[in-house]
Specification:
By secondary structure, the protein is α/β, with parallel strands linked by helices. Helix content is 41%, strand content 16%. Strands 1-3-2-4-5 form a five-stranded mixed beta sheet, with helices on both faces. It has a five-stranded mixed beta sheet with strand order 7-6-8-9-10, with helices on both faces. The longest helix has 19 residues. The radius of gyration is 24 Å and the shape is globular. The chain binds 2-acetamido-2-deoxy-1-O-phosphono-alpha-D-glucopyranose and magnesium ion.
Length: 607
């Protein structure tokens, strides 16, 4: 079922995207006016009929694959790789064969989706500079369908070329992929600023071109969300030739639109913003936006010209350590500051505490989510009233890492809050079930998704609503849908939306931070012998295996007022993570430390 979602995703309102694309380049595109169910069943019928003739690897293809695969053999003695929460990540030196193989996978995915453009991004996000990684973007710009992850795991771990070809052969048959050289496939490649990126992109290109008919288009150094945005834009036919330039144009135009729609503009403004760019790709891209917007009140720091990527800088460091990033200090007290991560898909805000010994007041992903949810709810309540036949469904998606106070606040706003396991692929999927699905991880990765039906309705409201106030609210929501990156969480477009909303409200960062008070929390990581021994359930809040550990965690947690604690295996690092919340910082620290010891007792290296 999931592999079909790529098609469902692209059935956007014709008013929003001009045409509806199936990802099947030569299928009828005048279908946009049909109701969604009819559209998608027609797509699927075409898709199914094409699939029937497929699923064979000819001799020429086999020998091409075999020849190139023999040049990219996996190094001996490395740990088993797993696609995880955000693709494959490891020390860059061991990744050549993995990336080569994922190049093949991306080309196969393009073939399977009837020639839709697939994305392949080389990044290890907030991890250290010597690491790297690879992840794949599906036709709608979202993460690779989970159905393909086992295949990704198996080919990444295939010990030699013969077994790799055998796995591909089996998969191609199972999925009916037309591997006969007759069909075209396109993969869009991007990388962050890591020095290992260039050679890994080359490995990916070898993988792609070993699938006959497949072409890799290299977008160079881009943020992860820019690559996802381009994939989405190309496939939805809004902009078949979509480039980074279009990304910047759309972001700046919709941001300006939101600013122009601010009622009774405050002459005071909301003051200066300083952005820590993690010494990563976000710095140079934010500079482009700054120039395009003639935005004088933003200062860009840690743009990568001097410091080391992610070393004591960036959103992950700031959110987890709750201290200032390098380059920030007492001179910044009271100023609104933001941090991006290494590939600019996470965003948090903070202020430096005066005499605080480098401590900060963190404004995390939960607060960004709350600000977005509040703004959307306000605007929606202006546009809709009880007499409307169509009542858009709004859903807010969080993970167990969301601060308990944020969930309480969102519930008090009357919003439906849903929990999923960690990893944006889960949140994104859930958010798609709503007309407006807003999701954020506490670490600052999140976005807003709008359904095609809602956007059609909104398009109508923009021009037909009688009152100016209603029209403007509709226009604001429309601008949000254009500004926010609906493919994936995006620190740059998220930052512009936060700035626009704060200006709209006339709020300082402190006023925003007062929406609710975070419960004190602590996150720790524990190195264990085998993190896969931890099996969780209930959106990762309960440990099922190893037996006995959950009872012990619960027994500790109940001792602390407002205590909440869970453990889960990381999908990106070889650790088990511990999260604890309680009514005081000391209590949260103590609870986290006790549970970390428990994890060590149950799973640590005890010889
Ligand atoms: C606690 C935490 O921040 N976990 C992060 C981290 O995943 P782990 O599976 O926890 O390693 O990286 C993921 C990818 O960036 C992100 O989705 C997730 O939220
Ligand atoms: Mg990232």
């Amino acid at each position: 079922m999931r592999s079909r979602r790529a098609f469902d995703l692209i059935k956007v309102c014709p008013l929003h995207s001009a045409t509806v694309s199936t990802g099947l380049p030569d299928s009828g595109r005048k279908e946009g006016t049909q109701p969604p169910s009819a559209v998608s069943s027609r797509f699927l019928a075409i898709f199914e009929s094409r699939r029937k003739k497929k699923g064979r690897m000819n001799e020429q293809q086999r020998s091409t694959l075999l020849q190139s695969a023999s040049r990219f053999l996996p190094p001996k003695g490395i740990n088993k790789l797993s696609y995880g929460t955000a693709g494959f990540r490891a020390d860059a030196s061991v990744l050549q064969s993995t990336v080569f193989r994922i190049g093949i996978l991306a080309a196969l995915r393009s073939l399977q989706t009837g020639g839709a453009v697939i994305g392949l991004m080389i990044t290890a996000s907030h991890n250290k500079v010597s690491d790297n990684g690879v992840k794949v973007a599906d036709p709608g710009g979202e993460m690779l369908t989970q159905d393909w992850e086992p295949f990704a795991d198996s080919i990444a771990n295939a010990p030699d070329s013969e077994s790799l070809i055998q796995l591909i052969n089996e998969f191609v048959k199972k999925e009916n992929i037309p591997l006969d050289g007759a069909k075209a496939a396109t993969v869009l490649l991007g990388r962050d600023t890591r020095p290992s990126g260039e050679s890994l992109v080359e490995a990916a290109k070898h993988g792609i071109s070993s699938v006959i008919g497949a072409v890799g288009n290299d977008m160079g150094v881009v943020t992860t969300p820019q690559l996802h945005w381009m994939v989405r834009a190309k496939n939805t036919d809004m902009k078949p030739s979509a480039s980074e330039l279009d990304y910047f144009d759309q972001a700046s135009t919709s941001f300006r639109c939101l600013i122009d729609l601010i009622p009774k503009k405050s002459h005071q403004g909301i003051g200066k913003l300083i952005v820590d760019c993690a010494n990563g790709v976000g710095g140079e891209k934010l500079q482009v936006l700054k120039e395009k917007l003639n935005w004088l009140d933003v200062e860009i720091r840690n743009s990568g010209k001097e410091g080391i990527l992610n070393e004591q800088v960036g959103a992950d460091y700031v959110q987890k350590e709750k201290v200032v990033p390098q380059g920030f200090g007492p001179h910044d007290v009271g100023i609104r500051c933001a941090s991006l991560d290494g590939d600019a898909d996470r965003l948090v805000y903070f202020t430096v505490i005066s005499n605080g010994n480098n401590q900060i007041k963190l404004v995390d992903g939960d607060k960004i989510l709350s600000l977005f949810a509040l703004f959307i709810k306000d605007q929606l309540s202006i546009v809709t009233d009880d007499t409307n036949e169509y009542q858009p469904r709004v859903g807010v998606v969080q993970t167990a890492y969301a601060n308990g106070a944020s969930t309480k606040y969102l519930n008090q706003l009357g919003l439906q809050v849903i929990f999923t396991p960690t990893g944006v692929k889960y949140l994104h999927e859930k958010a798609h079930e709503y007309d407006i699905g807003i999701y954020f991880e506490a670490n600052g990765h999140g976005t807003i998704l709008f359904s095609g039906q809602f956007l059609c309705w909104l398009e109508d409201r923009k021009s037909t609503e009688k009152g100016m106030e209603k029209q403007n609210a509709a226009k604001r929501l429309w601008a949000v849908s254009k500004l926010i990156n609906q493919a994936v969480g995006d620190a740059l477009s998220g930052l512009l939306l936060v700035e626009a909303i704060l200006q709209h409200m006339g709020w300082s960062v402190d006023k925003w931070n007062e929406l609710y008070h975070d419960l004190p929390s602590r996150q720790l990581k524990v190195k264990v012998a085998d993190r896969t021994a931890v099996v969780t359930t209930n959106a990762e809040t309960i440990v099922e295996k190893p037996p006995g550990i959950q009872e012990a965690i619960t027994a500790l947690t109940v001792k602390y007022p407002q205590g909440r604690c869970f453990v889960r295996p990381s999908g990106t690092e070889d650790v088990v993570r511990v999260y604890a919340e309680a009514n005081t910082q000391e209590a949260a620290d103590e609870l986290a430390t006790c549970v970390a010891k428990l994890v060590d007792q149950f799973l640590g290296f005890h010889f």
